[in-house]
Amino acid sequence: MALVWSYCSSLGAFLILGGFKILEAPPSWIDALALLSGLLFALNNLLFRFAQSVPVASKIGAMFYGCFVLAGLLLLAHVETFPMNIGIHAWGALGLYALLWLLLANIGSQWGVTHMEAGRSSIIIIMELITAVLSATLIAGETMEKMEYIGGFLILSAALIEAVRNQEDETKERE
Q1: Is there a contact between 130 and 156 (Cβ–Cβ < 8 Å)?
Q2: CA distances from 70 to 17, 33, 60 (A)
Q3: Cα of 7 vs its chain's centroid, Å
Q4: Does the pTM of the predicted model rise above 0.85?
Q5: CA distances from 90 to 44, 71, 93, 118, 142 (A)
Q6: How far is the C-alpha of 83 from the C-alpha of 76, rounded, in Å?
Q7: Consecutive H or E run containing 70
Q8: Share of the chain residues as helix, strand and coil, in percent rounded to the nearest 5
Q9: Dihedral sign computed on CA atoms, order 80, 82, 87, 89
């Protein structure tokens, strides 16, 4: 069952990312950054799970400070320029977004990673990909191709397989 879950989620992600079209152009630094981001997020989740004695608030604080330092280093390296022509209302909205939405989302997901079984908490990670695709469709007006729909279905199927598998394991443990 775990093998089916792995194939469904991997194939689904491959299809959502464009299938074999992603091999037509050489990878860019954005591709490398996205891959590194995913790997570091997974490593972050492993570390959160490993450090059970450290409070979630401390872990979240360290994660946010790390992001702040990384952003500062990227600005110093001139990877991006600091946006100077943004109004005070936009900065306020950005601050509220970071403190309310991002903070609450990270507290929820990291609490889940810390307290849930690893397989079940992995559902959070694969659902983020579905959420990103749906957001791009609904907010940015992007259109999905048939292969992306199939990929999304495979990822949702993998999440369902994992959820059912974990429920069966919990039922067997109780017996």
Answers
A1: yes
A2: 26, 13, 15
A3: 19
A4: no
A5: 30, 18, 5, 38, 24
A6: 13
A7: helix 56-76
A8: 80, 0, 20
A9: positive
The pLDDT, as a whole number, for residue 164 is 76
Evaluate whether 142 touches 136 at the Cβ level (below 8 Å).
yes
DSSP character string of 119-140: HHHHHHHHHHHHHHHHHHHHTS
Instruction: Provide the pLDDT for residue 2.
Output: 63
| Tokens, residue 97 | 């977004």
* The predicted structure's pLDDT at residue 62: 87
Q: Number of C-alpha atoms within 13 angstroms, CB side, residue 73?
A: 6
Which residue is associated with the tokens 């450290």? 54
Give the tokens for residue 146: 């048939």
Provide block-wise average pLDDT over 10 residues at a time, the chain (175 residues).
Answer: 71 80 82 81 78 84 87 89 89 90 83 72 71 84 85 83 68 61
